[in-house]
Design brief:
Number of strands: 7
Number of domains: 1
Radius of gyration: 28 Å
Largest sheet: 3 strands, antiparallel
Mean pLDDT: 83
Strand order of the largest sheet: 3-5-4
Helix content: 40-55%
Order of helices and strands: EEHHHHHEEEHHEEHH
């Protein structure tokens, strides 16, 4: 008879790296490097869609700020009982952040700039989709280093065996307080593996010309569906039986599936690159030209009397 547990993963987490007076978190480094790598992958894709580098940089600057705000805000909303004062909410090093909240915040803060620059929302997001997947992959490496996002007990061969209690590890933190030797789901690993396949799939899809919005909708459906399944293995706070990420993912997947299955073309909303050009005060160019033509048509020709003929 085969043993129930074929194998497991075990290592001592590296929660902090001390550099002089600073304690550097591999988790934070993974997020930062992932964002930069995703941005680098986005640039050539955006150029092919007619989006200039400086426009991409402006969007990414706003997206970075929005990601920080959204990631923290989404986490706090889902864990309101953990915060007794508004000041504690600002201490981002206490508690956690939400990946989906970060993505939402990044998009929302970049939206006004897209419209101001007359960029298609869907072209920008399609260019960003593979980079977003790459960013998630690298960010999850940081999670794996610190052994974050540990879930329920399991006998799955990819389960993570918690190290000794003397080790600084999320296993023995305030979240779950698992005993040494416990084998649990390492959901960050599942997320990491799934998103690698998602990235490869997106890179393959973009080889062929497709309508704007296709790539980002595929990203949203895949990643959202994966989070719905994955969160059943987590020990996160639940509301009406589901985590906050599951509720938001259900809505996201449903909307994107409808767009993919029934519309099969670029949604009309967000196509700001098709807006008519803005002119100065007064009549626009076309109306001005038409008025000028009408004025010329209505004018009566001025008759110039001939000079008197002079005879020598």
């Amino acid at each position: 008879m085969l043993p129930t547990v074929v194998g497991f993963i075990s290592y001592h987490p590296l929660v902090h790296v001390k550099l002089g007076p600073l304690n550097i978190s591999p988790h934070g480094v993974g997020i930062a490097v992932g964002f930069l790598a995703g941005a680098r992958l986005m640039l050539p894709a955006a150029n092919r869609k007619g989006i200039k580098d400086e426009q991409v940089y402006a969007l990414l600057t706003r997206a970075a700020i929005g990601a920080i705000i959204g990631a923290r805000l989404a986490y706090v909303v889902n864990h309101l009982s953990d915060y007794s004062s508004p000041l504690e909410i600002l201490k981002v090093w206490h508690g956690g952040i939400s990946l989906l909240g970060g993505i939402a915040g990044a998009i929302l803060l970049a939206l006004p700039k897209m419209k101001a620059e007359r960029l298609s929302f869907w072209k920008v997001m399609d260019a960003a989709a593979p980079g977003m997947a790459l960013g998630v992959i690298i960010g999850r490496i940081g999670d794996l280093i610190v052994a974050d996002h540990l879930g329920k007990s399991t006998k799955f061969f990819l389960g993570y065996k918690c190290p000794d209690a003397v080790t600084a590890s999320p296993c023995h933190g305030s979240t779950q307080g698992m005993s040494a030797g416990a084998i649990v789901h390492q959901t960050a690993l599942y997320d990491f593996i799934s998103t690698i396949f998602l990235l490869l799939f997106l890179l393959r899809l973009r080889r062929k010309e497709r309508y704007d919005s296709f790539l980002i909708l595929v990203f949203a459906v895949w990643y959202g569906a994966m989070r719905i399944v994955e969160d059943f293995l987590r020990e996160d706070v639940r509301h009406f039986g589901l985590t906050g990420s599951q509720w938001s993912s259900i809505v996201l997947v449903a909307v994107c599936l409808i767009l993919l299955a029934f519309y099969r073309h670029t949604p009309a909303v967000g196509q700001w690159d098709r807006l008519p050009p803005e002119d100065g005060p007064g009549e626009d160019v076309e109306d001005g030209e038409a008025a000028a033509q009408t004025s010329r048509i209505g004018e009566q020709p001025t008759l110039i009397p001939p000079e008197p003929h002079q005879e020598e």
